[in-house]
Amino acid sequence: MKVFKSFVLLLTVFLLFAMLATVGNGAAKTIPPAYYGEEWTLISSKVILPMQAIGTKHVSKVPANKVIKGVNSTWKISAGESIMGHIVDQSFLISISGKSTFKGPNDNELLTGTNLEATHAFITAVFFGELVSYTYKVENKITGELRYETYNVIASGDILNYYQRVHVDDNGVTTIEDAGRTKTRSFATEKELKEVLNSNNTDVVFN
């Protein structure tokens, strides 16, 4: 019995060390929390969301005719939050130290399809990630109990900064142009626009 318990303890320690294996910029790969006496066996994996834009964050504001350098970008999602209708079971953090230089709009630059002059630009960080669902068989070596657990994990990711021209009128109404300069959207205030960008709304960047 002592030998068996020692084996189980060693197994648990092994699983705990396996949890430290990381992918990309910080997401633990597949091993969920280990519990004493349990053996977790990966039996299947499925890509829920292929690599695509799944998160956004407002990073910086560039006034017209001004230049900023070294933009740093960070994107994080915590366990329990949702991405496109899927709950993420493991936190993920990614960041880049920017070396890019961004220049604000020139005088008399108009947003696409409007007579609105660009008053400044937003730098928006966009996170591209792949969401994978891992299914485990979990066996309790002490009681013999068997169950199955599924974990949704961001398996890999990247982050890029996008430049978007913006106009703010005298009443605070804020109009932003998508990164491809094909259309614009208006918001009641600049604060409202930032809140939308910080809520992972990729439509504001790409459509």
Structural overview:
By secondary structure, the chain is mainly beta. 14% of the residues lie in helices and 49% in strands. The longest helix is centred in the N-terminal third of the chain and has 17 residues, at 2-18. 24% of the residues are buried.
Short synopsis of the structure:
The chain is elongated, with a radius of gyration of 23 Å. Helices cover 14% and strands 49% of the residues.
- Strand ordering within the main sheet: 3-10-11-12-13
Strand content: over 45%
How much helix is in the residues? 10-25%
- Sheet with the most strands, sense and barrel status: 5 strands, antiparallel
The separation of the N and C termini measures: 64 Å
What series of H and E elements makes up the topology? HEEEEEEEEEEEEEHH
Broad structural category: mainly beta
How many domains make up the 3D coordinates? 1
Mean pLDDT across all amino acids: 83
Number of helices: 3
The low-confidence runs, each spanning 5 or more residues with pLDDT under 50, are 1-30
Broad shape: elongated
Supply database-style keywords.
207 residues, mainly beta, two-stranded antiparallel ribbon, 13 strands, 14% helix, 49% strand
